[in-house]
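worker-03 picked up job from queue 'complexes'. Input manifest follows; two sequence lines, order preserved.
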Amino acid sequence: MENQTPHPVITDRLTKVYGSTVALAGVDLTVSRGTVYGLVGPNGAGKTTLLGILAGLRHPTSGSATVQGRRISVLPDTPAFDKWLTAREVVALSASMSSVDVPQSRIDEVLEEAGLGDATKRKVKGFSRGMLQRLGLAASVITDPDVLLLDEPAAALDPAGRREVLDLVDRLKGRSTVLFSSHILDDVQAVSDEIGILSRGELVFQGPLDRLLSEHSTTTYGIRVVSGVEDVLAALAQVPWSGTVSARGSVVSLESPDVDAVQRELVPLLASLGHPVVSIQPISESLESVFLKVTS
Amino acid sequence: MSLWRLEWLRLVRTQRLAILGAVYGAFALLGPLFVRYLPELLDALGEEAAVLPEMTPPDAITQYVVNMQQIGLLVVAFVGAAALAIDADFEISVFFRSRTTVKEIVKTRFVMTSLAVSGAFVFGSVIAYVLTGILLEWLDVWPMVVGVLLQCVYLVFAVAVIALVASALRKTVAVALVSVGALVVLGLASLVTPLAPWMPSDLLGALDRLIRGGRFEYWRAVITAVAATGLLLVFAVHRLDRREV
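worker-03 finished. Artifact:
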């Protein structure tokens, strides 16, 4: 990458209004070089509008968007190409339009990586949606982009296809800066270095996944006891540092906002009750539950 | 795989070039055949041939030109709109716009479409000329050549009009129909305005008039057509550049 700015994608109070609808409201996005940035948000949150502005396909109402790089590639969620072209021609055309000189062997290699090795000479007309998405990704990757903007890149794929696409995105780490939107949180969790959560046009969180989970998740502990579940529930209900307490079988769940107090007081409390304890372990919160919490 | 090759493939694989050639070729055949065999046709139908003015060799070319100004222009509008309505499909538009400039896209599509429609017209004109020579009488070649070239200037202007309409509308059919409407209105306007000699539409009748011995008096229309073509393209690119996808 010839331009070494640390943040090739930056938006500053980016706002987009369609009539009376505010699609984006003062979004400040910062994407670090060579990272994979996952943009998540419910339908209508403004993800596609944001990617469209970054791609230069739409204009902001106010604020600014800067994407730095010699080559910027964009892949919409349902890619389409002239139906009378072959897969190989689409990829070659993509390279040519982006002023990238690649040998035929490299085109076939990229198609192979995208899972279209046996369809290089087939016309696009007969391609399924999943194949079109793979082809779109191949057409993006062939340009060796500095910045790659992907809108729901794995939405139309089966689980195996999704895995391949995510692997492909993962392999771009360090070489390209990838910003991809998705509503499949597992995908985001699998490949993203950083994530941004859009909700009703606002960027409600931005940063590493770990920080999202640590900032927005409450610590839940699972306490497995041999007996005395009722006593444990009653005791926990009376201490000031406990939050929500529930039981399922022999496991008592304790959700507390005060991690320090739990770590300091829980073991002595259980010991004072005298019931045998099998295990105490923190239960990590899923991205999905954190996402729902942040966007609610 | 350059944009030029893409546009060539678009013309060939979508059969548009074949359709243009077939339409222009068919009317080029029909013109001379119609003029040559009209008396026999009327005899066969039992009609009185005397009620019609006598047909001359230039009438064979006129038949071809008139058909081309109607059906031919409609075909040109659809072929041109199919290439120049670059935002007709959102996803395809994103593929192109995110990789190259609107100027490059419009330039290649305009040039290739212009070459295709002009080539088809020349192709038809050669057929019509040769067939007229064989069946009726050989016409002077230079008036024919100049007339065909003037007609090609008009066709290129028509493609530029399509490009401008495509910068205002997105759907292919709408672009084609509005373009035809605009060209018809421009043609009608040239009939009633004192500026007629300056109107590109004046070129439509040039071939017919030249092969009948008319003087070359089309330089004003040529200047307007060339200048308007350039301006229309610049305006179209500007509008498409600013348009959100």
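worker-03 released lock.
The interface with chain B takes residues 52, 55-59, 72-74, 76, 78-82, 84-85, 89, 92-98, 136, 139, 143 of chain A (CB under 8 Å).
The CA atoms of residues 22 and 151 of chain A lie 20 Å apart.
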